[in-house]
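To: structure desk
From: M.T.
Subject: fold request, one chain
Message: Could you run this one when you get a chance? Sequence is below, nothing fancy, just the single chain.
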Amino acid sequence: MTQAVMRPVTPSQDFALVLGGGGAKGLAHIVVIEALDEMGLRPREVAGTSIGAIIGACYCAGMTGAEMRAYALDVMQVKPDVLKAIFSARVGRFSDLFRQGLTNPMLVDPERLLGALFPSQVPKDFAELVTPLTVVATDFYERVDVAFSQGPLLPAVAASMAIPGVVSPVRHAGRVLIDGGTINPVPVDKVSAPVSVAVDVLHGSELALEIDEVVPNVWDALFGSVTLMMQVLSAARLAEHRPTIHLRPPVDPFRVLDFLKVREILAACEPMKDEVKRRVTIALEAVPADVVGESR
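Reply: Done. Structure tokens follow.
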């Protein structure tokens, strides 16, 4: 890919960064943040759902994209301490599956998991963040999305990543909360800056999938269905709340739980840095209403 010719851009606080949900696909957010770091730019606010909330918390705590890349590569080496953290975060025991018939032995407590794996730079409270952050979760009983921007940080992010069937729901602020992506996968409506940069990892490309008659296994069917649901919701939300810049990293070949493929995901998204720099440059130099919103 040819190197984009960049015009000088003065660091601006007039844009917001929106980081969408999508499991491991959301590791692409790191590459977008690296591009902004290389431009010397930082948004005035960040909103995130699920994996977007996790990476958003690290970014708003002051971590650079390069630091997040190094941390992700280190954690996903499946070292003994990482495996210990994951297994210690499980809810219930295998015997419960036969005794009660209701407990999923692989269900993970998100607060325990984040407590063990979050970088030490991430504070305990929203007020301690360097950049304002809005974390989006879903109220299971009220069936609405809920935005958190103050108070304890860990339970809000844990709730935002509570993927049904894998991660246990979170009780927080008088609510029972699940993954924000079940209602608001790319929360553009939660920011107010005149320019918004939305990273949508659910629509990674226009890749045509090969159609066959192979029946997916139970996990592929489950997460394929969740991804499909989020894609439909994302399209509807983005049509209603159109971002200034709609970035779609090339992550279609990867699955929601492909966290062990962090190196491959980052490598696949590396070429999009030029696009990020070019489009952000144009957006910050233009009248926001005149900027085209979706990448092709």
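Reply (cont.): Residues 118 and 250 are 26 Å apart (CA to CA). Let me know if you need anything else for the meeting.
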